[in-house]
């Protein structure tokens, strides 16, 4: 099982230091939405296309949708210093760890502990900014290799502590929330010091990558040698390989590269006994069941993923964006169906509903001169020339990757299909903007929360036959739940199709409402989201496409698994981790 | 979880009665190699292209390769009536089962019991024909629905019996062999009465299929409504959906349709407690681990697969075979590598080495008139015109499926790549012959065994970088092992590449030798096969690509899994089936 040096292998340099993350909120510290001194919405920094720009359309548009006015100065600020619950110390364990781990790789700092006790659900963000978390890890450690993890695992066992593996901390299912009733010392095992691509095999096109490497770090190390992993979840800048495996992640370019379960050939892990789960990697196997694959989607319950062998791909010759406008959502869906059946799916195909299309327009930076003129002319052509209805039209963004001929053939096929459904090409620039906006848009929630708008996204996978029912029913249900509670204004509920499969699609909903004057807004939001999930399941959608279960969706598990299936899961957990060392309590 | 009637669904008619299987040997009773009254090799029946034909070249060619003469009349006949071990009866259980299952769906007939105690390894075939099996099931039952299986499971538990699910009985890893030390009554649960496609959803392109349906039955039921599953393992005529799942099967057309793990969306099963493992099927999910997927590759250890929801595909517009000849194996491999990288892989691509190419030629039926002339002319062109060396050239068979334009584009791309590697197109007829021969060739082992030649195939998956080393080293090792034992003549050892993956390929070896005068030929063969497996692992190949582990390869498990990984497997088994109800003892 030892990974011997192999002549052809490339050993990349380790990644440089990562950009600083915001200690308290989404993303990198240099980026985010803000109000400037002229009371205009701006996006800070220089990291994204939108960075450094004024976004004049956002608040006016949001006011129209939410049905009430938003004062850029009228903020509901986060608490200056979040509340952090008391530590449950374990001096014997801490002394033992101090013998091996240097001080800079151990922390009991309250803010550090807090950050390791949540991901990025609505509840997580609310509770860290305006509410409070009842329980967070008592100690954070940063191991640098398997031996150190083994050491931490052994000592945690010996001293009766509980271990929680931590990747990018970006999950949106309350997976990292600590159970309030957990009275053992909770150790957060932050994997991000293990962020190297250990080797690349250019002949077999495989690489062994450490579990704590983020998408940014992986792509940088691979790109230096002409390769890419191609796994690009919306969180790819911050989330890690180990987190992707534990959460059964899906990437925006899965049509070309596959989802995480398709990319991973071998997973190395440490068990609750501190033993190494390892195996030989092969292109494909039938070996009576591979225990390492139980870690895919295990959400930290079974062991610590330490590294994995993954497929890698040559950086594509061509990478080209595209976009198409359709008269309405139905036309867009019919187009997607044909794209799926065509056998020539671009790397990424995403369809935004009308509201999300409008949202994208509202996020456009202020333009001047030629750009503004061009954009007005385009708009006039679409609305007057094609008689598209601004309140019904939708947009599809495309990303083509591959060889020159391959991309050309795909474009021909795809735009041909689009024409058949009355689609109008809207250019590569809009396509790239739409695709890249995914990363910048993740910052908006923190900003809107401070402006009295609470929001969250949630996803599902649905069979083709249930696609429109799920979209319609969820929207109706959200409006009904919002009205029933007499909440201010109107809710924002919007959907996009983000992934295509032979048998269905992934749907991604965005939900938000104004909460000024609302009692317990986070809890009310959670109730409505719960109702939306109920509606998804009742209408034929699934419990999760790629966000996972965590503690957020665990109550729904009996609706998708028979009791025998849940019993098998519980038995497996007890068999592999009888003392609940990995006591995260995820579903 | 209930599968409600859905408006759009199609409910196919049940399949007609299956063709009669040979009670004692591979395949259907109407087909097989035989010696006719003129001492010529013939293939009987009318089922395959080769059926009803005289095959004059087989024995002379085999004589040349094996280095000794083969007398068509000099046979080593199977025992007329195989030895069947005594039953271990359990009158209480048998009485209980008789209350529910009619007599025609229960059997204690010795030959029926024997057939349920083996698959088709060399050892299986030898022991049933010339040796003996130490232990076989004591009772065979044929349930028709989940309720009956639940009834059998409950009663087996109650009466302390052991259950072995049985599909097509085609495994080649001693999975169905009963442990001689098993003193409980062994009940074989023959699933083949559950052979219906319950429904097809033409919108979502899914179908629920019962676990006991064979490939033939599935394709017939789907084809009646314009669909195909596209899963075509070499055993597809006889093997079942449940068996494919339990063995983690791979099909010849996996490039287009995927392997079994890609095709299955949901698996329904009965646990050792007689509980139903069920869940909602979705296009793709992240639900904290899906216990049903543990059944993939479970080899009957964990539960009884009862049905599954699978993807189905429209029957392709075009299905076209092709073939290409290359100067040598290295050129063929270089071509495969380019095909894999081209992104336009045909449904099936297989490369035979020189020996296997010769074997295919030797199996050609006798030709007369124009056909013989044409074939001689073709041969002359290849050997003299192109100066291909008859002892080095290799053949690649291709199968294209898809839309007319798609297939045309693939053909253009693939034949273009072939030319770059000096390949010569050898026509659709040779391609189809090569592909279809897969099914007929499966009958040859029984025939050759009676003519003093013992043989077996075995497979592995290898990374691209290890492909040639594995081929070369295995061949050398087999020759060395053969020589070391002073066995007669020379061994036949040949390989073909049957599956392409991004990171490597599946290799399929054929091994045979003459055994007249050899003491314990089956055991000697097993030793040499074991040595070949050792060589595969030492050279970078895997333990199995799709044949599974069973009892045959279990001794090698510690070479591919760390002890912690094996421990996890053992713990899972104990947790899910603590009394070892599914006591098949597979690795």
Keywords:
homodimer; 587 residues; five-stranded antiparallel beta sheet; 19 helices; globular
In words, what does this structure look like?
2 copies of one chain form a homodimer. The first copy, chain A, has 587 residues and is an alpha+beta fold. In chain A, 34% of the residues lie in helices and 19% in strands. Chain A has helices at 58-66, 91-98, 110-115, 122-129, 146-158, 215-223, 241-247, 254-257, 260-263, 329-342, 354-362, 369-385, 404-420, 427-441, 444-450, 467-484, 521-538, 557-560, 563-576, and strands at residues 33-35, 41-43, 106-107, 139-141, 162-166, 186-190, 197-201, 206-210, 227-228, 264-271, 276-277, 303-311, 313-314, 318-326, 348-352, 394-402, 424-425, 453-463, 492-500, 504-514. The interface between A and B is large, with 86 and 86 residues.
In short:
By secondary structure, chain A is α+β, with helices and mostly antiparallel strands. Chain A is 34% helix and 19% strand. A seven-stranded antiparallel beta sheet of chain A has the order 17-14-16-15-19-20-18, sandwiched between helices.
